[in-house]
Each structure stands twice: as C-alpha cells, then as structure tokens.
C-alpha cells in the first residue's frame, strides 16, 4: 500500500473526499482511493502514519447519512467512529492494498 505524499490542504466532506481521491493524479498514478478503516489500521500497525495528525475520513459508510472517521494524534491511532457525511475532515489517499508491496 502506498500513501499519497500529502493530505488535502483543507478539510472536505465525505462525498467530496471520495471524489478527490478518485480524481487524484499524483506521482504519475491515478488509482488513488479513500482508505478504509482497515487500511488505516494496517498503516498504523506498520508505523506508516508518522505525520498524521487530525481526523481523517475513511471510505466505510455506516448508515444513510454517516461515514467512518479515524483520529490520529501525532501519528498514533485514536478514536474510530462515525459522523455525518456533511462534516469536514482531512483526507489522505492511498493506492494498492495491504498485500500489495508496490512502491510508488
């Protein structure tokens, strides 16, 4: 799994976060996506969340108007919960999967 080089400069609502990742063209790749809660857990377990500080949207959606978010404080994983999709949180795109060892 590869993490985009930077997060969004401003927070986005969940729908815009999905669109942002789907349209991202970074490092010559266009297959970026919003990470799932499991992706964030993988990144944290493998010490790949250094520099993450804030609340980030996950791709998972729980109910009609809610989606999952993950809170990081100085790279450490904190609360994972749901909130309304029209709230604004940070976005950090990923590509590949935890079993994909592709560098990029």
Give a topology summary.
Layout: E1 2-3, H1 14-23, H2 37-45, E2 54-63, E3 66-73, E4 76-84, E5 94-95
Antiparallel strand pairs: 1-5, 2-3, 3-4
Describe this structure in words.
The chain is built from two helices and five strands; from the N terminus they run E-H-H-E-E-E-E. It has 104 residues and is of the alpha+beta class. It has a single domain (2-95), classed as Mannose-Binding Protein A, Chain A (Roll), CATH 3.10.100. A three-stranded antiparallel sheet has the order 2-3-4. Strands 1-5 form a two-stranded antiparallel ribbon. The model has no long low-confidence stretch (mean pLDDT 86).
Key words describing this protein structure:
104 residues, alpha+beta, Mannose-Binding Protein A, Chain A, 3-stranded antiparallel sheet, two-stranded antiparallel ribbon, 2 helices, 30% strand
Tell me about the biggest sheet? 3 strands, antiparallel
Mean pLDDT: 86
Q: What's the overall geometry? A: globular
- Rg, alpha carbons: 13 Å
Structural class: alpha+beta
**How would you spell out the order of helices and strands?**
EHHEEEE
For the record, the count of structural domains works out to 1
> Into which percentage range does the β-strand content fall?
25-35%
Quick overview:
The protein is an alpha+beta fold and 104 residues long. The protein has one domain: Roll (Mannose-Binding Protein A, Chain A).
């Amino acid at each position: 799994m590869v993490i985009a080089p930077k997060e969004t400069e401003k927070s986005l609502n969940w729908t815009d976060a999905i669109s942002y990742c789907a349209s991202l063209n970074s490092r010559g790749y266009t297959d970026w996506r919003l990470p799932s809660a499991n992706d964030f857990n993988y990144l944290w377990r493998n010490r790949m969340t250094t520099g993450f500080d804030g609340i980030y949207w996950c791709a998972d959606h729980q109910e009609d108007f809610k989606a999952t978010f993950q809170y990081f404080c100085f790279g450490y994983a904190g609360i994972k919960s749901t909130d309304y999709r029209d709230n604004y949180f940070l976005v950090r795109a990923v590509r590949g999967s935890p079993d994909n060892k592709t560098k990029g």
